[in-house]
Amino acid sequence: MLTASRLVLARKRRRMTLSSLAKKSGISVRSLTAFENGHKTPAPETLKSLAEALELPFSFFIAPEVEEIAVDSVSFRALSKMSALDRDSARGAGRIVVEINEWIEQRFGLPEPDVPTLPHLSPEEAAERVRALWGLGEAPIPNMVHLLESHGVRVFSLAADCSSVDAFSFRWKRTRPFIVLNLEKSGERGRFDAAHELGHLVLHSEHRIPHGPEAEQEAQQFASAFLMPKSGILAQQLYSADARRILSAKRKWQVAAVALAYRLKDLELLSEWNYRTAVKQLSSMGYRSGEPGGITRESSQLLGKVFATLRSQKIPVARMAEDINLTVEELNLHVFGLVPTVVDGGELISAPIRPALRVVGS
Ligand SMILES: [Zn+2]
Question: Ligand 1: distance of its center to the CA of 123 in Å?
């Protein structure tokens, strides 16, 4: 009755070792190992205790097999510094997000993936190519999350219990691109993270492993070029700009002040000395740790529409969670901050939603 792969997924998602799960559930490591290997199946009572210890519904554990997301296909930053428990918990969160997405895809017509793989281009060239393919010209991008969603990327929120891990991305079954964003940062940094993960999807998801210092550097360069296109920046006359001019120019691109300063140096509009002076000034004004007076976090149009439709059809979120074999709490963790709603106790308490992305069906 137990689906072994689901027990493994749940344990990893909860950041538990076999012995910590044994301690919490009162079931021996030996039995747990046998359950996970599929050599033994637990009695219903035992499975119930496991479900309680892992804080997931009983139905989660008897649903069909789940395939893990391969470690090599995920764009984790600083993978070598990350503990296996943290990495596996985030990977488990990614796998749960895939389940949530499947539920949504069965009910809504969503944009098909349209993210090119350009492994042979430099980050700068790749960013320009994607902008051209998507018809963005050299204009600022009003909303990164909406842009990604309209090109078939599924964007979810990094569960708060994974916050030691940064944003990450992967292509599920080598096709469907996913980006999981850390929503604890400023709006500007969130946009940069989203563009950084797009860089991994474009540059690294085909032939190359999307982590390691070189891949990180390339994703940073991609994000910088994608959000602040060369021709657009050159047209702004920012040669030798000081902190004050950088602060006024960054509003146009909705990027962090320090990110714009870096881009200006990269495009040789700032000398090394000018750059360091500007960053020092910006730091003293609080623009290193945060983004004073910055923009609000971007939200998801796609998820917003899904939850609005549920509400209009009077389908409680608890039903959706039940269908996906999750608790409302677990479901909430993966959409939190991206939908202008608070999901609480199965009820939706909502703020007005501004639907714009066409989500067909329902
Ligand atoms: Zn990265």
Answer: 13
